[in-house]
Amino acid sequence: MRLLQHWLLILLLSAACPTQAGEKEDRQKLQQIGKDILKLEESVKGDSKEQQRLARELKKTELDTARLNQAIHDLEAQLEKLNSELLQLQSQKSSLEKSRQAQQDLIAKQITATYRLGNEESIKLLLNQEDPDKVSRALKYYDYFLKARAEKIEQYLQTMAELHRVETGISERQAALTQRRSTLSEQQQRLEENLRVRSEVLVRLDRQITSSKQALKQLHAEHKRLETVIRTLEESITKLVSPTNTEPFSRRKGKLPWPVKGTLSQYFGATRTADITWNGWLLKASEGTPVHAIHHGRIIFSDYLRGHGMLVIIDHGDGYMSLYAHNQVLLKVTGDWVQSGEPIARVGNSGGQRDHALYFEIRHNGRPTNPKTWLTRKG
């Protein structure tokens, strides 16, 4: 019976999840698609050579900024952990110091009592007793006393050894904290310099766009790049294996969580230019705010896209996708599986944006749909 249950479990798991070989192959396909997309991105025209050069410079600066932000975030997490461990060790040291002092006082009293009795305690006990039973009991008590004293000394030695271990741990963590604080300071200085360079590049890009016609041309180019990415991904992911044990995206209509805690500043369908409307939502949020996946799925794009910055696209199956742009840092790579509510990025202003905000879309078969009909009512 158990054997049958074991084989049934294996069959269910194999039906629900892609095989390891298939998973590796799919991941390689997606990574290759990503490379192809980045080549296609360069083929989208609409900018002058100087704008293209500045855009490449902006991309490099923003990618460097993302790496620095992630390094700073990791260092801050390490510092927090080390501080917590240091506080715990200092508390242990305080407790061990009290135990050591109490054990030391007790041993001192026992040594004093032994000294007063002299070095021939057992002989004196034997000679001072006439009753054999009393002699036997006295010797037994004496043995207990010696054993108890030996145990106290052993406990004291163990406490001293543990105290030494804790003190060594405290020294190591204090040294690690000093080193990481120094590294953090260096990374923060580099980040400040990167942000200064980014600001200068944006000023030079603004100077290149001297008319509303040029601004419109740039917006059209950015729109075309994203549509190229979506179309390429749609054509490429149809052969990828998807799990069958998750709730379909379509059944979560009106129940999906918001991707970020933020303020809705641009609505789906609102006018951007005379012939371009917003295909999603722009959600203003504080820099570094976690961005969450709205539903189970697979990361099919996690990279930098001109005009959209650090971009994540998740395939949810049945033709549904969600898109998250202008991030500060990407926490997942192409090919990763994610659960609903799992952090996938942090809010930023990449892609040349001035304000920190998340641009968010939901698409079905490549066509944008209003997030309002899919997400829960806020609050």
Report on the architecture of this protein.
The protein has 379 residues and is of the alpha+beta class. The chain is built from six helices and ten strands; from the N terminus they run H-H-H-H-H-H-E-E-E-E-E-E-E-E-E-E. The chain has helices at residues 2-16, 20-43, 49-117, 121-127, 132-208, 212-237; strands spanning 263-266, 281-284, 290-292, 297-305, 309-317, 320-330, 337-338, 343-347, 357-364, 367-369. Strands 1, 2, 3, 4, 5, 6, 7, 8, 9 and 10 form a ten-stranded antiparallel beta sheet that branches. The longest helix has 77 residues, at 132-208.
Helix and strand arrangement:
Layout: H1 2-16, H2 20-43, H3 49-117, H4 121-127, H5 132-208, H6 212-237, E1 263-266, E2 281-284, E3 290-292, E4 297-305, E5 309-317, E6 320-330, E7 337-338, E8 343-347, E9 357-364, E10 367-369
Antiparallel strand pairs: 1-2, 2-9, 3-8, 4-5, 4-7, 5-6, 6-8, 6-9, 9-10
Helix pairs in contact: 2-6, 3-5, 4-5
List the defining traits of the structure above.
379 residues; alpha+beta; 10-stranded antiparallel sheet; 6 helices; disordered N terminus
Query: Which class best fits the helix and strand makeup?
Result: alpha+beta
End-to-end distance = 50 Å
Query: How much of the sequence is in beta strands?
Result: 15-25%
| N to C succession of SSEs | HHHHHHEEEEEEEEEE
- Largest β-sheet summary: 10 strands, antiparallel
The helix content, as a percent range, equals: 55-70%
Low-confidence stretches: 1-17
| Rounded average pLDDT | 79
Looking at the structure, what is the overall shape?
elongated
How many separate helices? 6
